[in-house]
From TrEMBL:
Residues 14-73 form the HTH tetR-type domain. Residues 36-55 bind DNA. Coiled coil: none annotated. This is AcrR family transcriptional regulator. InterPro entries: Homeodomain-like_sf, HTH-type_TetR-like_transc_reg, HTH_TetR, Tet_transcr_reg_TetR-rel_C_sf, TetR_SbtR-like_C. Pfam families: TetR_C_43, TetR_N. Keywords: DNA-binding, Transcription, Transcription regulation. It comes from Streptomyces avidinii. SUPFAM superfamilies: Homeodomain-like, Tetracyclin repressor-like, C-terminal domain. It comes from the Bacteria.
Length: 191
């Protein structure tokens, strides 16, 4: 049974799983714990049986959706750094961070249910996100695009603050302005 769980999914099964996770984030963000599996399945374009085969409990689905959002955020870093200059990659990633934070806040009630059930989906998320941000900032520092006296821990705190105060959909414009202000303050001083 353990070998079966470790076997990679077929391409179509992986696509279905990805669609379910994306739909779950949207629906849990909108409806919290009131979200119905049937709506998530419908939005994902799969049957409820497919959803239940992948995620037999509400907590399993919520946890997987959250972990998937963290992975998407962190996994974007190498592609961003390969396709754009480091400062532009950092700019693009900070927007993704606000998207992630907005989804996380929208799923807060659902996430509390997972914690009550005894699992901690947050266990590794801070470290993973911090590592991703460190990679971006090191690339920016090496390119002399940002100041070297600001740590990724400092930047993470700034991003978290922006997310807490303005990550809701209605405050997106404010979040964008605050991100631009923060990134402007990070730029390397030219003398």
């Amino acid at each position: 049974m353990a070998a079966e769980a470790e076997r990679p999914l077929r391409a179509d099964a992986q696509r279905n799983r990805d669609k379910i996770l994306a739909a779950a984030v949207r629906v849990f963000t909108e409806q919290g714990l009131e979200a119905h599996f049937e709506r998530i399945a419908k939005e994902a374009g799969v049957g409820t049986g497919t959803l239940y085969r992948n995620f037999p409990t509400r907590e399993a689905l919520i946890e997987a959706a959250y972990r998937n959002e963290v992975a998407r955020l962190c996994d974007a870093v190498p592609t961003l750094l390969e396709t754009m200059p480091p400062d532009r990659a950092l700019h693009a990633w900070t927007r993704r961070f606000i998207d992630y934070a907005t989804a996380k806040m929208g799923m807060a009630d659902a996430m509390r249910a997972v914690l009550v059930a005894g699992t901690n989906p947050y266990a590794d998320s801070r470290r993973l996100i911090q590592d991703a941000l460190t990679s971006l900032m090191e690339a920016c520092t090496a390119a002399n695009a940002i100041r070297s006296d600001i740590t990724s821990t400092d930047m993470f705190a700034a991003l978290a603050g922006i997310a807490l105060t303005s990550a809701g959909p209605e405050q997106r414009a404010q979040a964008e302005r605050l991100l631009d202000l923060t990134l402007d303050g990070l730029r390397a001083r030219r003398e």
